[in-house]
Amino acid sequence: MEERLDRLNELGCWDWAIRSFDGSCLTLVGGSPLSPGGAHSVEVTFEDVSYLDCAVEFSHARFRRAAPEEVGRVAERVPVEADDVVVVIEAETMAGLEPRRFQVVAGAVAVTETEA
Asked: Helix, strand, or coil here: 2?
């Protein structure tokens, strides 16, 4: 898991957006630009999502596994199973340049790089 999250950070995608979320499967796209016809360089798919606290669009994201105390705070809101992955996304939003922390709780995470 850490290798996938490290790879996302190495790619240095400028902009991120939710491509789709059907209540269970969340797909984020990252790249620059994200405008129609723009190049997307990566997709992140979270499967079996049980909790999502994330802006629809964000920039300069850093992905990491949640620290135990962060998992504990999420667990106060929703059940977190032992095999769940809790990912923290630290990113800027349209509300300001100060990074915010978002959380996703999922059963699995997959990263797909695409050609720009």
From this structure: helix
For residue range 47-62, what is the model confidence (pLDDT) as tens digits? 999 999 999 999 999 9
Q: 93-113, pLDDT tens digit by residue?
A: 988 878 999 999 999 999 998
| One-letter identity of residue 46 | F
Cα–Cα distance list, 12 to 6, 46, 63 (Å): 10, 19, 11
Residue ranges making up the domain that contains 25? 2-113
Contact between residue 78 and residue 49 where contact means Cβ atoms under 8 Å apart: no
* φ, ψ dihedrals at 9, nearest 5°: -70, -35
Query: Which residues contact residue 9 at a Cβ distance below 8 angstroms, ignoring those fewer than 6 apart?
Result: 62, 63
Residue type at 57?
A: E
What is the identity of the amino acid at 45? T
Asked if 78 and 50 count as a contact pair (C-beta separation under 8 A), the reply is yes
Q: Report the C-alpha gap between 82 and 63 in whole angstroms.
A: 20
- Count of domains for the chain: 1
